[in-house]
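Translate sequence into structure tokens.
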Amino acid sequence: MRDPWTWLGAVVAGWLAAGPAEAFKVYVFCDMEGCTGVTGSEQIMGSRADEGKRAMEGDINTCVTGCFAAGATEVVVRDGHGGGTNVDPARIDPRARLIQGPTPGVRNKDLDGAEAVILLGYHAMSLTPGGVLAHSYSSASIQRMRLNGREVGEIGIDAAIAGEHGIPVVMVSGDDKTCAEAKAWIPGVVACQTKTGTGWQSADVLPEAESRARIARRTEDAVRRRKEIRPVVPSGPQTVEWEYLPKGSLRTHHVEFVPVADPRRVEKTGPSVERLLLDKP
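Result follows.
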């Protein structure tokens, strides 16, 4: 039999050689439309909005658990839906630092220093067939967006903003259309499907326990692989184009919405995607 003292000495020597665990931060930007069980407008802005808020809290806490399981020493969560005051801080894992409310001049407050970004509860870009609550920043006023001539939504823009800070987006969660869009924009990203979109206001949803278990697994995997996924950094000056809807239009994810044939188009070019987004006309 192997001498237990020799074995213990080898284990201790291994620990000492490995040194202290690496300290690193993960930044989680959470929207609501792609969260577990959310399928329609009433859950994000209407009479059933509390359902969306509870779904958002549950997904956040599951994701935070996955981050720490992967070795993160700091997790910052940005409440990113609407005005940014959706979740109840008392319901959020106290190990995470929660950012809520307006953050003038910056989209992702306290992003710098993170090693990975997670886009949690996201949705597909506007007019995506079958994309649950699909839109691009404003379902009430923006019909389409393009980044350097390529049609884009919040996934592509937010991945580019993270890339301008030198940080990769490692995981995106949402419906199947969201996951496909994430893979098209971010090579190597871990996609976490929480539902299958069957329309702008409908989906086949996973059971809550299954969806949350998937979020936990995919988060941990993505954070562990953070150094394998490269930041998305568009080259050269950036050009963002917006197609604006006339006032009074239906929201782009309304079941009766029809694209406007000749929307007002505005294009701006500059050195930073983040600045163009924040300074949009």
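Note: The longest strand covers residues 190-199.
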